[in-house]
Amino acid sequence: MAIIERPADVPAVVVPTPTASTNFGYFRRPVETTGWKSWAFTVDHKKIGIMYGVAAMFFFLVGGLEAGLIRWQLAQADGTILSADKYNQMFTMHATTMVFLFVMPMAAAFANYFIPLQVGARDVAFPRLNALSLWVFIFGGVFLNTSWFLGGAADGGWFMYAPNSSGIFSPSNGVDFWALGLQITGIASLVGAINLIVTVLNMRAPGMSMMRMPIFTWMAFVVQMLLLFAIPVITVALFLLMFQRSYGATFFSVEAGADPLLWQHLFWIFGHPEVYILVLPSFGIISEVLPVFSRKPLFGYPFVVFSGAAIGFVGWGVWAHHMFASGLGPVSVAVFSVATMAIAVPTGVKIINWTLTVWGGKLWFTTAMLFAIGLIVQFTIGGLSGVTHAVAPSDTQQTDTYYIVAHFHYVIFGGAVLGLFAGFYYWWPKVFGKLLSETLGKWNFWLMIIGMNLTFGPMHILGLQGQPRRMYIWTDYRAGEGFFNLGFWNLIASLGTIVLGVGIFMFLVNVWVTHRPGSTTLAAPEDPWDARSLEWMSTSPPKPHNYDRTPIVHDLDEFFHRKYEDVGEGDDHDYVLRASGAEVIAEEERNADAHIHLPAPSYWPIVLAAALPIMAYGVIYNTLLIVAGAAVAVMAMFGWALEPADAEPSDFDPPPPEPATGTELANV
Fold first, then answer.
1. Contact by Cβ (8 Å): 455, 493
2. 649: cis peptide before it, omega within 30°?
3. Cis check: omega of the bond before 302, within 30 degrees of 0
4. Which of the listed residues 64, 235, 369, 504 has the most CB atoms within 10 Å of its CB?
5. Torsion angle of alpha carbons 476, 482, 483, 488, nearest 10°?
6. How far apart (Å, rounded) are the C-alpha atoms in residues 514 and 435?
7. Residue 575 · residue 1 · CB < 8 Å
């Protein structure tokens, strides 16, 4: 495939002078667009996506601080930074924060913002449920972290195995905060999943079949289906734990005839699909980034789609490889070993497709492209170390060692987090109309890559030499043996966290430089990357109603085909430029739809969300708070039900379009 510049004898499209059809003054009573109320009460999926992202980034910094304290405790033998109890709380909350309060909601931020844009919709199916999902997540995250100030945080690990999570072994309220906080954030995930599933299935633009959807939307859709079935499983487990701790139930008590392995089965039936809930959105992001910066279509689009769906399906059948050391028996171990090997196949298919997308392309090494390539490399390392856990004898030896920590972080940080950063740099101009600095971005990338490998690479060696996980001090019982010196590799891992932290700080500096008052040097054009998918056919940033004219989709990579004409023959594809991205967008704006309805803002989602932590505090401290929270929830639901759904009046009625001047887009 070749892309040919527009011939000199082909006139450029003259962009018509904007008419009143693109002027928001024609909203007879516009929804508030400035001030804190425009954010707090909004039901606009784009603002909700931005707030999801800001909240998730805050929790990312909190989780990073917790990780730094853990590593500095372990920088030397017999560390004194944290006590044993505080160390247990720290690693529990670090993992919980990163999984439930950063990666999942940051992926939700991308999904909320871009799924409606990528499928050509004006908003999600249920805008107020979308707002409820956001505020429930925020209140749940804040509630969970108030445990630090109310007697101590949870201390049983993010997996919270029974019987260690019982009142006998963990008498403080930390585990109660953990169980109730995750139930609250689970509501946010479940509500958001239902909303996005309905949006994808029912609100696609005319002509957009499922096999014309962008890959990010596909992977996010698979994730929402996983959430739909996984969240109820962990919710059941959390309810059982809550009733055991707060009301004397005996669901996991051996002395009452129960089996503590019930918790492990419930948790990991949720927990292994959860791994793919974390990484599949990033797989979707880099599947958008790589074709754009390789100047090629995604290699094997159907294979990428179906391999993602296969990962989601097979992911339900591998949970017990987390339990090989628990005495399941040889038959169960054999079955889950085979399943664990099998799930590597669709993951390998994706890696091959990404590699062949890049192969032979005209590569443009932007920061987004670097993060996408970094994901392929780092995730492959994590995937290869993960395959070793399919071999039960190897897994039994490695269980509860730092080898597992290394594997998990290469998968989650090297997979999910690097992909999210690729999305930041790729879509930032779409969201904010400004380009992040490429110079600072490359510093951000290289420091994160170096810091990640310095931090997590040595953990493979530490684990294979027998250093156990979740020990607040360690002993270098092989001191003086050079390469396998535990003290040396622990120090390297701890120093790596500094490099990693500086890399993340460079991203924050980049954001500040881009958006500091008066900064105009990085203003982005409408189509800065010569992108391919539909979301780039809206303005940057998009308007409240996304598109002036509902797009009609004819091809996969619709925006690319609006800009380029295929002049090749047969299987040879040679594309000639017929219109720039800005010209395509201008043509879409010129003939706006009439009667564009916008949903009305509402404060009832905040009120309803606030009722949940009130009831949760009631479970821990005083039953009267449960009654008060329930009363607030009922009031909020009545208020929500009785207010009008649309802004009043809600039509966008432009005047008749003026005749176009200049050359029009013939085939757009």
1. yes
2. yes
3. no
4. 369
5. 50
6. 7
7. yes
**pLDDT class of 516 with cuts at 50, 70, 90:** confident
Alpha helices in 248-400 (DSSP H): 261-294, 301-314, 330-342, 344-358, 367-387, 392-398
For strand 574-577 and strand 2-4, is the pairing parallel, antiparallel, or unpaired? parallel
Burial class (CB in 10 A: 0-12, 13-18, 19+), 139: buried
Instruction: Kindly state the tokens that stand for 104.
Output: 């999942």
Calpha distance 382→465 (Å, rounded): 19
Question: Which amino acid, one-letter code, is at 511?
Answer: V
| Separation CA 188–CA 206 (nearest Å) | 30
In tens, the pLDDT along 103-157 reads 999 999 999 999 999 999 999 999 999 999 999 999 999 999 999 999 999 999 9
The answer, yes or no, to whether residue 62 has pLDDT greater than 70, is yes
Residue 658 has pLDDT above 80, yes or no: no
Half-sphere exposure at residue 243, Cβ-oriented, CA atoms within 13 angstroms: 10
* String of DSSP letters for 180-229: HHHHHHHHHHHHHHHHHHHHHHH-PPTT--GGGS-HHHHHHHHHHHHHHH
Please say whether the beta carbons of 267 and 204 come within 8 A: no
- Identify the three-state secondary structure at position 79: coil
Q: What is the mean pLDDT of residues 61-81?
A: 94
Query: Does the pLDDT of residue 61 top 70, yes or no?
Result: yes
- In 276-389, at which residue ranges do the beta strands (DSSP E only) sit? none
Contact at 8 Å (CB) between 578 and 565?
yes
CA–CA dist 323, 343 (Å, integer): 17
Average pLDDT, the chain: 89
Give the pLDDT confidence score for residue 5 in this predicted structure.
55
**Nearest CA among 639, 507, 426 for reference residue 57:** 507
* Pairing verdict, β 574-577 and 564-566: antiparallel
CA gap 149, 350 in Å, rounded:
45
Element housing 4 (H / E): strand 2-4
For each of the domains in the chain, give its residue range(s) and CATH number, in order of start. Answer: 43-259 (1.20.210.10)
Burial of 146 (0-12, 13-18, 19+ CB in 10 A): middle
For residue 443, the SS3 value is helix
pTM: 0.92
Beta bridge partners of 575: 3, 566
- Rounded Cα distance between 86 and 91, Å, is 9
Sheet arrangement for strand 574-577? 2-4, 574-577, 564-566
Position with higher pLDDT, 597 vs 358: 358
Give residue 482's pLDDT. Answer: 57
Determine contact, residues 391/455, Cβ cutoff 8 Å: no
Helix or strand run (H / E) with residue 500: helix 486-515
Name the DSSP letter for residue 316. Answer: G
pLDDT in tens, 334-369: 999 999 899 999 999 999 999 999 999 999 999 999
Burial of 197 (C-beta count, 10 Å sphere; 0-12/13-18/19+): middle
